[in-house]
Amino acid sequence: MAEVKVLVSGGHEDTDEGLKIGSTTTLIKTDQNIIVDPGALIDEQKLLDALKKENISPEDIKLVVLTHTHIDHTVNLHLFKNATVYLKFMGSYPGQMQVINKGLLIRKDLLEDTKIAKDVKIILIPGHSNDLIGLVIDTDEGNVVIASDAISNEGCADLKNEPNPMIVADVDQYNESRKKILKIADFIIPRHGKMFKVNK
Ligand SMILES: [Zn+2]
User: Does the model's pTM come out above 0.90?
Assistant: First the structure.
């Protein structure tokens, strides 16, 4: 079974200068170590420290998944120079991978249920953005879903709470994606805040 560890819990804080945000960065330990959403520049040192605690150097990571391409999820990608990066693509094909250190861009279908490693598969959860993907990880405790901005915080898991139109591109898709995640997940890792258990 895979293990999941939140390395950086993404912040969300109103300041005098503006909204200070970062995304959650997660480490999946399975047949290889996978980083999901390397995150924002303000969290770079936090991420390096967390990796060090795990005895992992960024160069050892061979697979990074970007849940989508918003900048608060992606900037620290530069740390993972030997990684192949998986992301959904908004163009005419359904996914791509980039082998960073070779400059190779390869089409790869990232469809519903695409398995990317042992006990780790993709789910499509558009709404916040059209390219949003989540991950379902089979662990000893049950299914952990990395929900990214489909469920930005625990409050978003309550379907009675209306989405904020500022952060949702398509409300109907967003609501469908939330329902889908709640059905699959025993635990959810949101974009910010702690992992939480889904009440079934
Ligand atoms: Zn986003």
Answer: yes
